[in-house]
Amino acid sequence: MSIFNIKNINSLHSKKKNEILSELNILLSQYSAEERINWALTNLPDSHIMSSSFGIQSIVLIHLMIQQKPNIPIILIDTGYLFPQTYHFIDMLTNKFNLHVKVFRSKISPAWQEARYGKLWEQGIKGINLYNNINKVKPMNFALNQLSVKTWFSGLRRDQSKSRNELTYLSIQKGIFKILPILDWSRQTISKYLKQHNLDIHPLYKMGYVSVGDVHTTQKYQSGMLEEETRFFGLKRECGLHEN
């Protein structure tokens, strides 16, 4: 399959587009994470970016990416409600690896949002969805447009939640190529990579957190819980960033 066809896939009708994506996903399933990154950087259109929440295991994909493209823009969506430890973690990693972090936020400040809507995260699924739309989805859409993004790398993994079981290595979201290099990695693979490269893990991991987002919608892992139940009070897993 030629690079020309891949880069112009959006001009094809949906059936042909899905056929090509299916073929590419079979190919990518046979590659290592490093090979998937190399393939995408070589074959998918620039500009390339990656997104990161700088959560518990986020350093893994960051480290993999900067081995091949040290200056890749890393989009961080700052809700204003991240844990203090997360902000310190971002600063530490940025300085240590000279990361090219691009921060995007809602145009409405957290204080103004609370004055206007109250504490949305306390208003059930409807309030949480509105909160996520204001603080995550809209800023991300703005970032993708502002940076003229053509290819988006993300660290989503199938073992993180049921909602991610059916994800593919390569897809098209909002007209943008979306590539998930560590989609098939297990917790054991992640742990092995962290130890092999002596990478820093998020400080909240040692305090019992297995997934970290905002302070008001993240809770520590308790015996018997699924990882996805530690976010959004177990009402939902996805914040909307990775939905079409």
UniProtKB/TrEMBL annotation:
Gene: cysH
Protein's UniProt name: Phosphoadenosine 5'-phosphosulfate reductase
GO MF, any single term: phosphoadenylyl-sulfate reductase (thioredoxin) activity
Lineage, broadest ranks: Bacteria, Pseudomonadati, Pseudomonadota, Gammaproteobacteria, Enterobacterales
Pathway involvement of the protein, from the record: Sulfur metabolism; hydrogen sulfide biosynthesis; sulfite from sulfate: step 3/3
HAMAP family xref list: CysH
UniProt EC number: 1.8.4.8
Organism field: Buchnera aphidicola str. Ua
SUPFAM superfamilies: Adenine nucleotide alpha hydrolases-like (SSF52402)
Major localisation: cytoplasm
